[in-house]
Amino acid sequence: MRQFSRIVMSSMFASAFFMSGCEPQKASQPQAGRVEATEAYLQHFGMPPQGKEGRAYARVLYLPVKDSPGKVRALPVFLFDEDGQLSKILDRLTGGELLLPQDSALYDPFPADLEVVAGPPQNGVLELTLKTQQAWNDEDQRAAGLSLAETALQFAEVQSVHIRLNGQPISFMPVGGFEHNPGGLAEVPPPTLTLIAGMWEDGAEAPAELLVEFDRPVKVNHFLLRNAEGNRVEGDYYTSIFEMAVVVHPKNPGAYREGTVLQAEWHVVDVLGRSGKGATTLPLKRFEH
Fold first, then answer.
1. What is the pLDDT of residue 5?
2. What is the pLDDT of residues 186-208, one digit of tens each?
3. What dihedral angle (degrees, nearest 10) is formed by the CA atoms of 80, 100, 170, 172?
4. Listed residue (198, 184, 288, 216) closest to 252, CA to CA
5. By three-state DSSP, how is residue 8 classified?
6. Residues paired with residue 220 on neighbouring β-strands, in sequence order
7. pLDDT score at 45
């Protein structure tokens, strides 16, 4: 279910939408698309991009800020199924698959073997049961508790969060459980580039496409992708369904291997008017369909 918009290559181009991991859509009788957002998403990132077809759900997850104990910051996440959203987002938060830039101000405080079970909210109270066999220091436990609680509290049916770790209530939980704490939310900074990746089809030697991803939906005012020799990467350029990536179908896919160094020169603006720009050099990460 992937939709692309072709880019006329210049320093300015219009953004479109991206839905990862799906096949191109065939022409049919399209229905108006809709992306529904929580108040938390609207607060941190503004109105989400609206697709041409189907339905999606704009949510956030929160991660702790390295240099600000007690603070968490929002990251956008998009879902495509209305059912089980709370569990899916908590799995995304704690599953060890978040890709943060090396210089990120955020960090992942969750042990690799952590299990999180969320019971159905009862009278606004959500019970979270955590299990781990790994050593987990108090600082990371506290940061993880704040991340889990604020992530869950974006849902209207959750008014407070109670957390148990290995059968015992966590020691730092407030009386009555965690409640939404606006003072614990760090300000979202200007947008930034997070990843340069290649998408390999199963068994293919070369990537079918290159993805240059940003940390939120953005309007791209300027973009240039160069190889290690400083030459522009030739190919067809597109923007992606949630306006979070520039997608390149390279003219010469065989020139791009895992670890190939690429440089993106970029200037982007998010929906709330925050502007970011830079020249980012990264090795090509490998992902497979």
1. 42
2. 999 999 999 999 999 988 899 99
3. -120
4. 198
5. coil
6. 268
7. 98
Report yes or no: 35 and 18 within 8 Å, Cβ to Cβ: no
| Residues 227, 208: Cα–Cα separation, whole Å | 17
Q: Amino acid letter at 56?
A: A
Take residue 262 and report the two structure tokens written for it. 């690429």
Best CA proximity match to 59, nearest among 242, 214, 192, 268: 242
Round to the nearest angstrom and report the end-to-end CA distance of the chain.
Answer: 13
Phi, psi of 4 (to 5 degrees): -125, 155
Examine the pLDDT at 15 and tell me if it is beyond 60: no
* DSSP 3-state of 58: strand
| Residues 132 and 115 sit within 8 Å (Cβ to Cβ) | yes
Q: Which two tokens stand for residue 154?
A: 């974006």
Degrees, nearest 5: CA angle 175-180-182: 125
Residue 254 has pLDDT above 60, yes or no: yes
